[in-house]
Amino acid sequence: MFRAGAAYTRPAFITRAGTRLPMTAEQHLSKDDIRTLPSYPGLAPTAVSVVANETEMEAAYHQLSVCRVLGFDTESRPTFHKGETSSGPHLVQLATATHAYLFPVERLADLTRLRMILESPAIRKVGFELGSDVQRLRAKLGIECAALVDIGRLFRQPGEHRTVGAVQAVARLFGQCFRKSKRQSTSNWASPVLSEAQCVYAGNDAYVALQVYHELERQGRV
């Protein structure tokens, strides 16, 4: 991952055939080739906080409200049966350059501060495939998210309809594999207590979106 002040080298990867190829933001990589890349480090568990009460909400708001851009995502308890409707979102994630904050919306009595951040036109919220996140927040909590950037669309070339998600974006920009656990993605996000693995998974979904956006900014693409 690119760090400020470091000399930047365009990432490359070794294909299964043993060929070293330079990466570009436009180049689609196969799942097999992505798996051969070194792992994306992401946030450690100590850099992910679950906001559980009013005091922690105020502390999180103090950190988030001064940011120009935040990584953004939500999680909902999955549905497994035909016709079943999701009752999500159950978790909202916001990330700065160094920390991710998780908001279990059904366990917080007052969401005013979270609403202020999500509805603020002065704070850009960046993420991948945000359509369903925004719809669920509106339907469940009446929150009208503002200043959103759906990063996947920034990768599309004219006439291209292929969706670019976080795993593909990290591979193209950083030459690393953002490993996402299927077990965690389909876990119970409405649980009263989230496991450490759930917290790290959710926090990094928001964090990686911010890192990808910052790299696109560095390249002059946004």
TrEMBL record:
It comes from the Bacteria. GO terms for biological process: nucleobase-containing compound metabolic process. Signal peptide: none annotated. Keywords: Exonuclease, Hydrolase, Nuclease. Coiled coil: none annotated. The keyword Hydrolase applies. SMART domains: 35EXOc. GO terms for molecular function: 3'-5' exonuclease activity; nucleic acid binding. Residues 48-221 form the 3'-5' exonuclease domain. The keyword Nuclease applies. PANTHER family: 3'-5' EXONUCLEASE DOMAIN-CONTAINING PROTEIN, EXONUCLEASE MUT-7 HOMOLOG. This is 3'-5' exonuclease. It comes from Pseudogulbenkiania ferrooxidans 2002.
